[in-house]
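Sync notes, pocket subgroup
Present: LS, DG
LS reminded everyone that the earlier model was apo-only. Rerun requested with 6-chloroguanine included. Inputs:
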Amino acid sequence: MRIDILTIFPEMFQSPFDASIIKRAREKGLVDIHTYNLRDWATDKHKTTDDTPYGGGGGMIMKPEPIFAAVEAIKDEEEIPIILLTPQGRLFTQEVAEELARHDRLLFICGRYEGVDERIRQHLATDEISIGDYVLSGGELAAMVITDAVVRLLPGALGYERAAAEDSHATGLLEGPHYTRPPEFRGWAIPEVLTSGHHAKVAEWRRRQALKRTLERRPDMLARARLSSQDKRWLREMGYAGPFAEED
Ligand code: 6GU
């Protein structure tokens, strides 16, 4: 996969993309990430990329010309997703990460919070994404969040084959508790079942813990999760009275 990121702050991306899973995925050739400084496509001597809004009011608006020129230079003739990062976009979820991970290329345009010229939305971007209902100063951190969530889905990126398919959200449930050594720490012992060596019992315990934790913390997720009839019985026993998703 190739990911191109257009930003006025390319330096922000250096350390996050040079650590951990993303670093290893780049080294393995699973992903090729390029950041581009939008100022390189500004045409005036001050390298201006924003301007005051027509009609007055505060804040600066990103100008269309440098963004159109940059995108046209980066993508050549290809049809690729051109994703504008903006708080007005569709909400980023694990499902959206899975959808983006199926493309060969992605191009992110990091908008600044105050806004971008509407013609960028209407005639250049093919998608608009927000990472949540809060305000960031610009799309850069959102581009990092999305890149991380997408890259870890690429086959081979995790390096352990407990694949991303088991993660919280991918299964539609939160994960239950995890433990490692020592078996007793400051008087707090781990659950006995985990050292029983009984694989079926461990699997059942984990599933019930995942259901319990999701019920306690994110009951809204239960209405969308893929659940077996056993899962549903357990949830009813735990006191969940809400709806379940239609089976497919
Ligand atoms: Cl993509 N951009 C900005 N500026 N703020 C956000 C966001 C994006 N997603 C959530 N908040």
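DG: The domain at 2-151 is CATH 3.40.1280.10 (Alpha/beta knot).
LS: The chain has a mean pLDDT of 95.
Action: DG to write up.
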